[in-house]
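YM 10:42: Large ribosomal subunit protein bL35 sequence, as discussed on the call
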Amino acid sequence: MPKIKTHRASKKRFKITASGQFKFKHAYMRHILTKKSTKNKRYLRQKSILSKIYWSTVKKQLPYL
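YM 10:58: structure's back
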């Protein structure tokens, strides 16, 4: 059987933690930041853990992680 290709966009967006969870960077931090509150921008700066609902989808896209 041939190898399964890794979904390149997913590889760039998700990192796997030591406990097997996926972490990702929040969206909405690129431009038009003046109308966003400081509290919201501070929250968006942090990495976040992906919800368990999406784990199976991401695992299919990243077969060799």
